[in-house]
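Quick one - inputs below.
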Amino acid sequence: MVNLQQKKEFQEGAKAALPLILGAIPFAILFGTLAPTSGLSALATIAMSIFVFAGSAQFIVLALIAAQAPLEMILLTTFVVNLRHLLYATALVEYVKHLSLGWRTILAFGLTDESFANMSQRYLQTDKTNAHYFYLGSICCFYFTWVAFTILGVGLGSMIPDMSEWGLEFAMSVTFIGMVVPYMNSKAMISSIIAAGISSLSFTYLPNKLGLIISALIGVSVGLSMIKLEKRRLSYE
Amino acid sequence: MNEMLLILGMFLITFTIRFIMFAFAGKMTFPNWLEVALKFVPPAVLTAIIVPSVVMPQGYIDLSINNTYLIAGIFAVIVSIYTKNLLKTIGLGMTLFLILQYFTI
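Output:
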């Protein structure tokens, strides 16, 4: 049975998710609106929000579907883009390892940028006895909003039929720009981003959007090398 | 494109990444360099998508001021640097893009 303390944690978690949800609502609507113009059926659009539940991967996949990339390339990209969740899980596993497998399964399914942000805050507190209810509250609140507003977006998109001619694929580019710029806070990160950008122009002749993965790998290698160089310089000084 | 396979594949990949650490409940660790490398992944992937889509929207490199994608894209970068706000970046970037589109057609 769920006791009063656990219920309170659940509600607190849902409340903590609210500000992040407000930020995500426009994206859920945008995703639902854009997906069918990229060539995804309305049903698959909604199913993606229900089963995949990964905002940035969902947007990137739309760009790939619109470019008619093959399935293997889309899945490979999904893998690369979602790898960051491995970092989040590594940071959180300490606090969930005592829970049952069922709990860990649900908490893992709902692990997103947003729930990670919520939980990093919550686990700073000393009393962690019922913190998994806080986690569940944050996930539920976020999950149902994401799905509901995706459906709303699909509905809106179908009411305005000519939207695919508005050049809305630029909405995706501009969304990604707004996501990348905040990362540019170190020499290593800026070098990585510049390297990925230049490479992406050099490899567009490659089939199946293979250039995307290669450019991303080049970007990551440049970033790693810069960090190594900086460390070496520091050890000389 | 088989949409069933697409959703199933994306679900399996995403869920496995999120679940694997929780499944082993802390009995698994991975090397430090990989942890550092992972931080570079999202911006690198996103950049590799953005740059071709705004620099060569018609399939060839177009650095002229007639390329509305490029002009609005550069504007969005500037807005993002100054406001550090995602929704403002999208709103203002999209507004300029639609205005430019309207005048070029």
